[in-house]
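Hi everyone,

Forwarding the result from last night's run.
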Amino acid sequence: MTVDVREQVADLPRQVRDRDRLAAVRATGLMDTGPEQVFEDLSGLAARVTGSGRAFVTLVDGDRSFWKACTGVDASSIEERQNPVEESFCYFLIGSNGKPFIVDDVAADPRTSGHPSVGPMNIGAWAGYPLLSPGGEVLGSFCVIDDNPRTWTPADLATLETLARSVSAEIRLRQSLAAAEEAHTRSADLAHSLQQGLLPPTPPEVPGVEVAASYRPASRAGRSDIEVGGDFYDLFRTRGSTWGIALGDVCGKGVQAAQVSSMARYTIRAVASENRPPADLLDHLNTAMLRQGAPRFLTAVYARFRVTPGGVAGTLALAGHPPALIRRNDGTVREIGTPGQLLGIFDTCDLTDVRFRLAPGDLLLLYTDGAIEARPRPGAPARHQSVFNDADLAHTLSTTAGMSAQETIDHINDALAARHGGWASDDTALLALRVPTHRPI
């Protein structure tokens, strides 16, 4: 049985033409704009990882579904990159108030069997996640289409969900930056808020491991412009019992540094879902930065690890970044990681995976160079003091034996503050993993 398109129009969910939702779509400024590499890369990654062949970043107003990005479809002009809203599956997702819409067999599913686009677009299976505005309105979808019916695996859906959040984050970041520029609200508070938006509010809980992190922005020295830093960190589950931990430092500050930082985070998360080794993942990030013409280079460290009966087992790679530090339960500290090339400069990267293990009481510390460059404010009475360098950091870490992950982070921040006297020359991000000495059985 076929369904007349005019009947579909009449049956469109009321949320499609909701005034607030339409205003949110217009506010993106993306309708009827040309392809952009960042969105094309994400749709291409979705098509490749799921093996679906087609993937879309779609924005939906009251009349059209506009394909900001489309992989596997021969549509070069703006006019070709859209279809009427009633001929798009996206309105199902909008009508569900942003819940994912997953169909394994569109011809057999009663929700879609009579849909007018099934035949013309050769849709066998469809899976989509919402793109959300800062206010929670559904802007459209991040979806994949397979020609044939199929069962979407948990890994497929986890990848789509992560990439959809990445697209939403990119849109929100652009809107935040545009609003800041238009209003000329170049204040320290806004800069701090934007920086915090690029970082996880709190690290997730990892069963069997203590986690602690901190981010301290550089002092402003009276400047009136927005000084958004480029430091970032992230901790997330990749696949199964495996976790990923990343920390990086974009060269410079400001809007461009924030954009590169955001792009690096969502690229790392997306590629990590493929469970690649750290060196391979960072090499992929380097390729993405070069393809997108990232205006700043980046140093980064990425580790993949899992909790074991004896503690933690992992692999780590450095890309132009200071080595990670492991503090053993007895206070012994050693560097971990082989130096590698920074990202965003060279076509190829020489990066090395290094294995590590943490036993009960051991702690892994990742940090940005603000932790090894602390110095008093120029001209301050304490200017004779030396820079807090890598040897000072290792010594400070050696005195934290027996401390929890959070106590260790606090102790290091206190030592840095004692050296720079409240004036930080650079942003500082710290991230620690510790295996408790008394672990639940």
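The chain is about 30% helix and 25% strand.

Cheers,
N.
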